[in-house]
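[Help] Beginner question about ligand-bound structures

Sorry if this is basic. My supervisor gave me a protein sequence and a SMILES string for deoxyuridine-5'-triphosphate and asked me to "get the holo structure". I don't really know what that means in practice or what format the answer should be in. Inputs are pasted below exactly as I got them.
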Amino acid sequence: MDVRILDPRILDWGIPDYQTPGSAAVDLFACIDAPLDIAPQAPAVLIGAGIALSFDDFSCAGLILPRSGQGHRRGLVLGNSTGLIDPDYTGEILISTWNRNPAGSPPLTIQPGERIAQMIFVPVVRPRFGVVQAFSRSTERAAGGFGSTGA
Ligand SMILES: O=c1ccn([C@H]2C[C@H](O)[C@@H](COP(=O)(O)OP(=O)(O)OP(=O)(O)O)O2)c(=O)[nH]1
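Answer (accepted):
No worries, everyone starts somewhere. Holo just means with the ligand present. The predicted complex, written as structure tokens, is below.
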């Protein structure tokens, strides 16, 4: 996969980490010029990750996820819950950054180069839909969900 480095500071912040063995994810850095305050419950802010990708083919996509520590401990999560990077997208990867803490909490300050999210790559399956009136195969679960099997 080709990557364009749109912000040269990425090279100092850790592009070698993109190949860390054992890590499933690529950390994404906040490419901002100065510390950025994000108020609790304010509309999500788009922060550039300083990279653009060219996927080798359309069999893979990227998913942007929160970092556990940032989200659980600090309250810094994604305004879109999960970001989907389509394999035909060649623009800068953007991180929808949201402070989920209660109104009245102090703002969260994002530092330039801070790792605010992470991205994984997943295979894409493209099932061919055949439109039917009823399914020919039955299952034990059928339409049961949302706790239908117990707590
Ligand atoms: O967190 C994100 C989510 C999306 N994108 C980029 C890559 C993605 O391929 C494109 C479109 O995202 P998506 O398909 O989720 O957006 P949409 O709201 O469905 O708009 P579109 O009509 O552009 O598909 O925006 C990001 O950079 N970061």
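A couple of things worth pointing out: The first strand starts at residue 2 and ends at 5. The radius of gyration is 19 Å. Feel free to follow up in the thread.
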